[in-house]
Amino acid sequence: MTARDDIAPRVVTAYDWGSLGDVLDVGGGDGTLLIALLNEYPSLRGRVFDQPDLAEAARKRIEAAGLADRAGAVAGDLSADLPPGAEGYLLAEVLHDRDDDDTRDLLTRCAEAVGEDGAVFVIETVTRGRDLTALTALAEGAGLMVADVHDAGEVAVLELTRP
After folding, report:
1. How far apart, in whole angstroms, are the C-alpha atoms of residue 146 and residue 103?
2. I need a labelling partner for 29 at 20 to 30 A (CA). Which of 4, 61, 63, 118 fits?
3. The O-methyltransferase C-terminal domain covers which part of the protein (predicted)?
């Protein structure tokens, strides 16, 4: 069981993901979280963005789940530009083991990709990882501000938008 398997049920109920048209699960691994969201919100579309081997695993799991008509996977590098145009960029259990510079850089790339009207969602288990206060300071340094914090028990969903 991965961390995403454990948090997916909490994340699904933490926010009205159906209000977003399209999400990009950045560092989305094998697609566990995206599949859970798509199963709960039939109008939602999404893609996993991760290293080539993980993107391929996600694509196979998405197809096996019967969701290929609303989802896909894109191979790429988290240190490069992210595919633009999604209304929501998800960073689930991606930032807790990164240093401040790497975190700020990834948040900056998300801010650039999401544009003016979308949101970046940082999803972290509260009992591990970095202090949320420190994370919000890094988000501000990346050109984002905290729009809301959605509580899901041990999981926090920070909704970040451009000012």
Report:
1. 15
2. 118
3. 9-131
Helices (H), the chain: 3-14, 32-40, 52-64, 100-114, 132-141
The C-alpha atoms of residue 109 and residue 123 are separated, in whole angstroms, by 17
Of 72, 118, 71, 90, which Cα lies nearest the Cα of 24?
A: 90
The answer to whether 110 and 26 have CB atoms below 8 angstroms apart is: yes
Q: What is the pLDDT of residues 80-92, one digit of tens each?
A: 889 999 999 999 9
- DSSP letter assigned to residue 21: S
Q: What is the model's pTM?
A: 0.93
Closest CA to 75 of 95, 94, 56: 56
Instruction: Confirm whether 96 is a catalytic residue.
Output: yes
Q: Domains of the chain by range and CATH?
A: 1-82 (3.40.50.150)
pLDDT of 74 = 97
CB-neighbour burial class of residue 59 (10 A; exposed 0-12, middle 13-18, buried 19+): buried
Catalytic residue among 96, 130, 150, 162: 96
Is the Cβ–Cβ distance between 40 and 12 less than 8 Å? yes
